[in-house]
Amino acid sequence: YYYYQLSDIIVCLTHVRIKHRVIQNIIFLISQLTINNYYTKNPMQVVLKTNDTYYRDTDFLHKGISVAKGTLVAVTGVVYRENDVPRLLTPNGYLTANKAYVQKVN
User: Fold this and answer.
1) What is the distance between the alpha carbons of residues 51 and 12, in angstroms, rounded to a whole number?
2) Read out DSSP for 32-69?
3) pTM, two decimal places
4) What's the pLDDT at 10?
5) Which of 14, 18, 43, 102 has the lowest CB atom count within 10 Å?
C-alpha cells in the first residue's frame, strides 16, 4: 500500500505496479481540487464559523487557547504546512485556513 496524506484526504493506492509518476499526478490533481477550499492569500480578518482552537504549530499538534464561534480574528499571514496545507497565522497562533471553518471579513 502507498498512503499519502493531502489536506484532509488520505489516498490509498493498492496497485503496486502503478508508477510513482502516476501517483504524483493523482496527488497533484486532488490537491488542485481541495486547495480551493482554503484561503491561500492573507484574508486580513476572518470570523470563525465554529468553535475552534489556536495552535502553536502548523501541524495542529499543540493546542493553545480556545476561540469561540463568531470571534473576529486578525490574520497576519498564510503559512504552509509541510504537505502544502495553508494555515492562518494570527497573533495568538495558527488557525485553519479552511473556508468551511473561517469566513473572510471585508
Assistant:
1) 31
2) HHHGGGB--S--SEEEESS-EEEESSTTS-SEEEEE-T
3) 0.69
4) 42
5) 14
